[in-house]
Amino acid sequence: MSRRQIPVLVEVHAARRHVRRIADLLVLALSMPIVVAVIALLAIAVKLDSPGPAFVRIQRLGRNGRPFGLLKLRSMRRDAEQLKRTLEHLNVLPWPDFKVADDPRVTRTGRWLRRYSLDELPQLYNVLRGEITLIGPRPCSIALADYQLWQTERLDVTPGLVGRWQADGRGTLDFAGRCRLDIRQAQSRSIRVDLQLVAGTVRSVLTAKGAY
């Protein structure tokens, strides 16, 4: 790649981000009245099911590794983090991932929310703030210090609400596998690919494929 080509590519990527931002805001404007009502009902269900807040903020890494607070409906007991150490022997994925089948920290309502990914709906607020986009690699809980160098490529783009590994495996893939899918997604972005991801994610959610 010549030096003359680099500024052109930067302009193209910036233009694509601008178009995606406009598309995000348009979808939010059309869907927000219904989504807000659904989130309000789900928040009431969370509060009635177990003590604790209806919403939680969890730290995630955004574009270029910048941390931000990802908003979710609470699906676990409020002492879930304190109980994590007692469940390390049940982890089904290689460290630094942490996944426990039939996690006892998950509440009754939380298990249903997770099955259909409804706990992720409040992240539309993060979309509104520009911290994530509707379609992009999913932000994950892995700390930057645990990334291998090749894996940091997934941080070159804005994370999203709908990502490749949601459509292909959801909670069954380890971090390295998710990184490969995320990087592939970032390298092959197009309207056609985005629509395929949305369709694949809908299938995975409806069939509860890989849900924890």
Question: What is the topology?
Answer:
Layout (H helix, E strand, L loop, with lengths): L4 H45 L5 E7 L5 E7 L6 H4 L24 H8 L8 H5 L4 E3 L24 E3 L1 H5 L6 H13 L3 H17 L5
Parallel strand pairs: 3-4
Antiparallel strand pairs: 1-2
Write a brief caption for the model.
This protein has helices at residues 5-49, 80-83, 108-115, 124-128, 164-168, 175-187, 191-207, and strands at residues 55-61, 67-73, 133-135, 160-162. By secondary structure, the chain is mainly alpha-helical. The protein has one domain (5-207).
Radius of gyration: 18 Å
Question: How many domains in all?
Answer: 1
Instruction: Give the CA-based shape.
Output: globular
Largest sheet descriptor: 2 strands, antiparallel
Helix/strand/pairing category? mainly alpha
Point out poorly predicted stretches.
Answer: none
Distance between the termini: 44 Å
Quaternary state, please? Answer: single chain
The pLDDT mean sits at 85
Task: List the strand order in the largest sheet.
Answer: 1-2
Considering DSSP H and I runs of 4 or more, what fraction of the residues is helical?
40-55%
The tally of strands reads: 4
Could you state the order of secondary-structure elements as H and E?
Answer: HEEHHHEEHHH
Strand-residue proportion: 5-15%
- Number of helix segments? 7
